[in-house]
Design goal:
Pfam families: F5_F8_type_C_2, Glyco_hydro_20b, NAGidase, NagJ_C. Residues 194-476 form the GH84 domain. It is a single chain. By secondary structure, this protein is an alpha/beta fold. The chain has 4 domains: 7-189, 2-Layer Sandwich (Chitobiase, domain 2); 195-393, Glycosidases (TIM Barrel), CATH 3.20.20.80; 519-659, Up-down Bundle (Methane Monooxygenase Hydroxylase, Chain G, domain 1), CATH 1.20.58; 665-806, Sandwich (Jelly Rolls), CATH 2.60.120.260. Helices cover 35% and strands 20% of the residues. α12 packs antiparallel against α13 (480-492). It is flat and about 95 Å long.
Amino acid sequence: MRERSRTSVVITACVAAAAALAATVAVAPPGVAGVASAPATAAAQPLPTISPTPRSVTRAGADLPVPGRVELVVGADTDAPARDLASRLLREHGVTRLDVVTKATGRAPLTVLLGSAERGDVRRSVGGVEVPAVAEGYAVIADASAAAVGTVTLAGRDTTGQFYAAQTLRQLFVPVEDGWRIAGAEVSDAPRMPLRGSIEGFYGKPWTHAERLDQLRFYGRMKANTYVYAPKDDPYHRERWREPYPADKLAELRELVSASTANHVRFTFALSPGNTVCYTGASDRAALKQKFQAMYDIGVRDFSLPLDDIALSFSCAEDTAAYGRATQATVGRAQAELLSWLQSSFVETHDGVQPLQTVPTQYGDLTETPYKQAWREHLAPEVVVMWTGTDVVPPSITLDQASAARELFGRKVFLWDNYPVNDFGQTAGRLLLGPYANRDAGLSEHLAGIVSNPMNQAYASKLVVFTMMDFAWNDLGWDRATSARQAARDLAGGDPRVTEAVEMFVDLNHAAPTFGPELWLPQSPELAERIAAFWKAWEARPQQALRDLRPTARLMASTPETIRDGVDDGFVADADRHLQATDLWADAMGEALAALDAIRRGDEDAAAAARSRMEALAEEASQVRSEPGKNRVEGLVMIGDGVLDRFLEDVAAEHDSWLGLPPLRNVSEGKVASQVSDWSSAYGAAKAVNGSVYDFSTTSGGEAQPWWQVDLGASYDLETVKIYNRVDCCGSRVRDYYVLVSDSPFPATLAQALADPAVTSHFEAAQAGRPTSIDLPARGRYVRVWLSTPSPTELNMAEVQVFGRSLD
């Protein structure tokens, strides 16, 4: 979604209006040769959808044709980036002569006024349209009422408001058969949240300089005003915070600051010293000011001192002497007093610097603690406090919760929303693309703003961030479905076919995990609904059921190629492995439908062949792994998991039933599991058969050859055992193990079990995060995983699935 040069993709939000107007016939008004006027019926046409959603947008009259000549009227009050943007937009949409003047002559067929809402000509042209009297407020009026001269007014309450007015103009251009028109609209708008944007605050590989520059342009387009530079793996941000940035890195930061200014984004420099800082130490306080001063000298005017993900402890004798033993109360006070000192001694002594921002060590709950009490009592009221919700990754945020957070910290909190970040174990192998959700309308009354913590994949993150910034701008007028559609269109450059493919890809990557076993956004809700409808129709009308589902299968099959060919963005590189997996899963789904069609026709050979191809493709798809080095946590690429794979399993069961075989199913889920020992009660053996790959069982680590087992409760004909390793930042915890099957309890040692002729065994060397599928035809009741090597000594597994057929 970077800025594009080709004219045809400048507009991303007016496809429906464009189609409605494309066939209109232009007629030149009297006295203006060669200029096509808008037809009288244009006033009845729907306006383009504008993102972020304005507070008020209405049809003002007929659309204005874009002529070859335009006057752009500016003044000393005009914002330079807004002027540059308006000029570029006009030229890209057919203007060959653009006269930039300080007073309108009335001789050009279109006049564009750009400036402060208080400037005389702008104020008169605005008329009765409100320019909200809040920071960043603006109005846009496209007036075609004059017989020969059209006027577009871009009025800003401040310079940022002017820039946002020009960003709204960008979305009002409508392509028609003879060129372009500007939709006849009146827009009155302002943000509901003061701070809106992203924090590069994830663990793992930081964004590249090019990716950051692209993000800043994107934030400008989305009227987002905040970028917080806080990559955890930048050593000069965290571990080596006292050291100055090398010259080349400082030059990059200077360029980012300049790009931020050009896009009306506040570049916020964050320094994270909490692991080693001496809160009262004179030398560390001097180092903090020195580091901030270096950033101030390159143009930074927003600063943050986050204290997240650290121990509540003291690092120096001076702090212990000043505050006593480290407790929640004493460390909380030390932190609050350091932050207050920075606010008074640095922020308030430097021109143009905004209030200091921070993240408390206790940032993700609503529990009253001595730590939070110390912050309320000792933290300067100007300091902006970030909060992540009711957890690190909260499933929802309500008005009551935001109000409670405001009370806990004694001020409106600034929401650091850990979405769509994918740097924790439950997100291994995932792109998180589901549109923003489960945040209450009205949060703008309780929050200072919202920043997204995006993925390591910068370009892919923009689909979600688009919807988050839409919400933050106008949470009271936000509609999730509309916002999601707009985000897809934006990525697709307005192309309807590419938009449809992007929406399918989003659905296949819709899941959003929490830190626990549950998803806070479900996987593939649209696909799941279509598959449920298919099975409902299958018994009574199999041919019609297949006919209804095939368009979905065809769309899925064409989606990777359509995105690769139609998306002019780094998104394709970010999503490469997921596009590869989608290709394979789509082919598997096609074979599943072929198998069902063969069953419908009674063709046993064709059904068996299609099922064999389906299962081979599904196995290949399940082995696609995320790009090495891209994420902190790597793993199997997840595409439509729990929906696509379950559909294929149901197709296989349908085929088995048609052949008269007992169904092949996972016979281990919910059965009695045990292990040689427990690391703790939170990681008991049952976690590996509870149907979730987002938690895990763990043995204590005290045995040389630990084991885990499940009692299936009865003997089954077993075919496959699938083992999901625990995945975290350090890789797999399951290596070099045996899978054993027996009808009787196992002997005491691994050696005895391997020597027992009644025990079926298989040896496996596992990989981190890969669901290892083991063909193990055997008959038995007990299945045991037995570690064969002494290191690591504990045995960790996310899930063990045993597929078998009942002997009844």
